[in-house]
Amino acid sequence: MTKDANALLEAYRAVYLTAEDLRVAASILYNAYHDDPFFIDSLHAGDLAMYEQKLRGAIREELNELWQQEQALIGLFDSDRMVGVACIVTQQVPLGESRYWHWRLKMLISTGWQSTQALIKKESSLLEHLPSPHCGILQFIAVSPTEQGKGLGSQLVQAALSWCDEQPELEGIGVFASDASHAQLFSQHGFTLLEPLSIGNVEGELLFYRGHDND
């Protein structure tokens, strides 16, 4: 990377999101995950408008739940403008089949029964294959479509890993990658393959980053 590119990236800052940031974060995630194979498989039943409504609802409810549970919501900002977001959830809160009833109810209303079950099954599958209960999941990570190609994805991943390294009780974080370019990005930052996974009809890889305190 050139000196000019480094200077440009240094102008961006990664900070925890506030409640006022959640709406913009949800918009960034919606655009980034619109064509995600897992969400298409889980939420799309042939009607594009209904799929988009379900996706907006699922992202909104999950963001709000992570916020309420004080999980790590990290925004990447260019001055006052959010250009990326990463969300990490730990097993200090109930996940998968143990999800709170109020989350289930809100997700049912937003996405329907089958879609809610698909989200729960994905999470349960990841939890089952992580090394221990002391591991988190990189639930969402995205850069605004207009800001891609600037190296911001790498900076966002690094911000998430820096957060992980600062959590003494956390062994590391896992992420499910169904896109080869995404898997390559994570691998460049120290994620290693735990195992290939099939979630619903989607093939992918469960990648894991071991925190520095757990080397």
From TrEMBL:
Per its record, what are the GO molecular function terms? acyltransferase activity, transferring groups other than amino-acyl groups
Keyword hit for Transferase:
yes
Domain N-acetyltransferase span(s) in chain numbering: 27-215
Q: Name one Pfam family in it.
A: Acetyltransf_1
Q: Which CDD domains match?
A: NAT_SF
* Keywords (A to Z) from UniProt: Transferase
Classification via InterPro entries: Acyl_CoA_acyltransferase (IPR016181), GNAT_dom (IPR000182)
The superkingdom listed in its UniProt entry is Bacteria
Q: Which SUPFAM superfamilies match?
A: Acyl-CoA N-acyltransferases (Nat)
Name of the protein in its database record: GNAT family N-acetyltransferase
Organism encoding this protein: Shewanella hanedai
